Amino acid sequence: MVKHRHWFRPVPSIGPSTNPTHVQAFRSIGVMTKVIFSFVVSVSVLCGSPSKGEEPRTRAFDFEGHLEGTVPDGFEVGMTGSWKATEWSVRKVSGNQVLAHVGFWDEDPEGVFPVCWVRNAEARDLTLTVRLFPVQPPAAYPNAEHDGAGIVLRFKDPDNYYLLRAVPLEKRVRFYKVEQGKRSTLAGLNLEVEVDRWHTLALKAQGDVFTAYFDGRELFSHQDQTFRHAGAFGLWSKPNNVTYFDDLKAEISN
What we know:
Layout: H1 20-47, E1 57-61, E2 75-80, E3 87-93, E4 96-102, E5 113-118, E6 126-134, E7 149-157, E8 160-167, E9 172-179, E10 182-190, E11 199-206, E12 209-214, E13 217-223, E14 232-237, E15 242-252
Antiparallel strand pairs: 1-15, 2-5, 3-4, 4-15, 5-14, 6-11, 6-15, 7-8, 7-14, 8-9, 9-10, 11-12, 12-13
């Protein structure tokens, strides 16, 4: 049992003291106690409760209720590298609103990656999850392949972020860093990524450890310290494909 120390030792007394000195002393102690209590409450409100054991904050986006054909409210679009703009817009697919990336099936410029991120989002440690649907290339483009889409976090700007990408063409899931516009592979695993079906892609960031998941399966973990600070999070695609995204969710712990 933990014993608590008292701030002052109580003086035994048969009844209330009428000594003016004693009365003034007890009044002073009462005032001091109120001041200290008020200070502690103020600090707690300003600083917040400790993060240890704190329930994660969740931000979820299902794209329902947004105007079709537009970028959803609260999102921004941009591009790693320089090229003509691809399209990010809300579309209705099988009665459900999704965020679609629509690129150019017959063009694949080097080092160009369209990105769509949540405006004013700041998170360092989180689990980011999305459902994605890689669309089968149309028959009109016989040489086209779906070259991957994914999620980004600790996003500083379109040239600096972490990326987890599912790649139907190469049959693998890969984890990258994009630093100063240059993409570098950090880790990956070969597996089947089917087109024309929904998949779940998730990336957990905890300090310098990143863990990748695909369709509910843990794939791999990797350590990296390139981007240590909080940043935005969002979606990523190659410019030569069409991908539908839905149910983007960030469970933020820091």
